[in-house]
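TL;DR need structure tokens for one chain.
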Amino acid sequence: MTKGCFIDLFAGCGGLSLGLLQAGWKGLFAIEKSPLAFETYKHNLVDSQRFNYSWPSWFPAQATTCSQLLEKYKPKLESLRDQVDLIVGGPPCQGFSTAGKRNPADPRNKLTEEYLDLVSIIKPKYLVIENVAGFNAKFKKTNSDELSIPSDIPYAELVKARLRKLGYKVSSGLVNCSLFGVPQNRIRFLMICEYVGVENKVVKSQDGGLVGEFLQTRGGFLASKKLSVSKPVSVKSALSDLEVTGKALVQCRDVGSNNFKEAIYERPLNRTPYQSLMRRGMAHGAAPTSRRLANHKEKTVEYFKLLHKICVSGKRLTKKTREDMGRKKHSLTLLHPDLPSPTITTLPDDILHYNEPRILTVRENARLQSFPDWFEFQGKYTTGGVNRKNECPRYTQVGNAVPPLLAEAIGIMLNCLLQNGNSTKRPTLKNGFDHNQEKSLA
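>> reply
TL;DR here they are.
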């Protein structure tokens, strides 16, 4: 089966690229401005030789931006027209997130315009845009018209209109990552687009159904991973082998961790199907990295123990509980062991372990994001103060990432589309897979 090549824009540490590579796609290059996140991307996906990645000699494999790419390499980009099968990427979401101010003049929103500029030059066969659910919500009224964004129109609708003019059939919708085996209720806005040509009347009609087709592939995908179709992966089934209770603690020898501990990793007698999936590619009994435990003060540990007694698992700390305890933090959630976790964020203290009085390690967050254990995050663990806006340490890399399992499912479906040709001619695929692919995934 012929595999396509892709470019990843706003790649972060590589969650979306990883899933596509695992689905058999060939990597061309990636754009990521954070040196810390790019270091992780390059270490695992480009330099590791695990995958089919052909980084071009004309483009330095280092952290950069879309604007720098457009400014310095436009002739090279023009030579790629009709040579690239897929461009993926989720422009930074802060300007669209409902957790923030949702300011239409947020300069980060302009990054979407750069994404569209690159698309207009390269004209790939397919596009995938992943973002927060707020990407498709209306902006609040504002006095600023810097980006000329009407406050009563979702930004996603403006992007769709631009893509249609470029000749793309556009499909979009909200997807819960837990539907594809990710042990996390992470609701994301997904846009899948197919180039059909500016002369094609399909572009002027209603949205295509590629997101709908994608959702229909979940049964075959989960079966291929030996995961349940009827019950989502729970937090405990994802993390139980990483619990520290009863295990010896030793000094963590990871970068910047001289004063931190980690638990010795002990291979469980019986792994869950999800743990077995995450352990693929690891040597027998080998310990995953990024298991550094937080240095909680004794007072903090006692507070967490109390929360275990009085809080409802799986629910965010209530306002009354916060007031009773004299705490201002509002987003802390005690994990429910038998349910998927809430959305993993970039802040390590947003989530409390389901039965231990501590926050999660980077590796545990990565498990909840469906990163395999062999994937090694690079650089510092956390940052603070003024550096928080400019740096992308490990917790942030994990929280910002597209879950690789979701990305792999997208990649598998797009491989089917690539094989079957233009959507106006191809037959409906059985459960999103052709028969040969179903056999190869089993």
